[in-house]
Amino acid sequence: MICPCEKKGETSVVDSRPTEDGTAIRRRRLCSCGERFTTFERIQYREIMVIKKNGRKSPFDRDKLSKSIYIALKKRPIDTDTIEKFITKISRSLEELGQNEISSNTIGTMVMDALKNLDPVAYVRFASVYRNFREEKDFVTFVDRIDVYKKR
């Protein structure tokens, strides 16, 4: 495994354990430079291709999904374990669709629907990027439609 600091592959496993839901192995690693980091080993059921809006296809990248979700949840009161379970649930749901090709719209909608229940602020953050809001009025229109923000 390559160390994220040194960019060299001289690391050793200090600790291994299954994740809470049993879907992955969490490994704590130590580099010869002294840096410690965590890696995850997960089951990949099938190779999923993502069909982009422009028609291009690319392999599904869990890390890319993870980064976008972590950005939406930045500085929100949600712990890392909950976020990892959330990402695993989305990935698993995509695999369970049983399709080798999935549109980016399907993935974005699935993430938005799940974020709406997890954290309304993260939901709006993700939607603003996913739906490509260009002006303030786009943002306001979207927020006005959300039940969470409507006054009763």
Furnish the topology, listing elements before pairings.
Layout: E1 11-18, E2 24-31, E3 36-42, E4 49-51, E5 57-59, H1 62-72, H2 80-96, E6 101-103, H3 104-118, H4 120-130, H5 136-145
Parallel strand pairs: 4-6
Antiparallel strand pairs: 1-2, 2-3, 4-5
Helix pairs in contact: 1-2, 1-4, 3-4
Give keywords.
single chain; 152 residues; alpha+beta; three-stranded antiparallel β-sheet; three-stranded mixed β-sheet; 5 helices; 6 strands; 42% helix; 21% strand; globular
Structural commentary:
By secondary structure, the chain is an alpha+beta fold. It is 42% helix and 21% strand. The protein contains five helices and six strands; from the N terminus they run E-E-E-E-E-H-H-E-H-H-H. The chain has helices spanning 62-72, 80-96, 104-118, 120-130, 136-145, and strands spanning 11-18, 24-31, 36-42, 49-51, 57-59, 101-103. It has a three-stranded antiparallel β-sheet, with no helix packed on it. Strands 5-4-6 form a three-stranded mixed β-sheet. Helix 1 crosses helix 4. It is globular and about 55 Å long. The mean pLDDT is 87.
Summarize the main sheet: 3 strands, antiparallel
Share in helix? 40-55%
Task: Output the structural class.
Answer: alpha+beta
> pLDDT under 50 segments (min length 5)?
none
Could you state the order of secondary-structure elements as H and E? EEEEEHHEHHH
What oligomeric state is this? Answer: single chain
Strand order of the largest sheet: 1-2-3
Number of domains: 2
Average of per-residue pLDDT values: 87
Judging from the principal axes of the Cα atoms, what is the shape? globular
The tally of beta strands, per DSSP, is: 6
Any idea what the radius of gyration is?
Answer: 18 Å
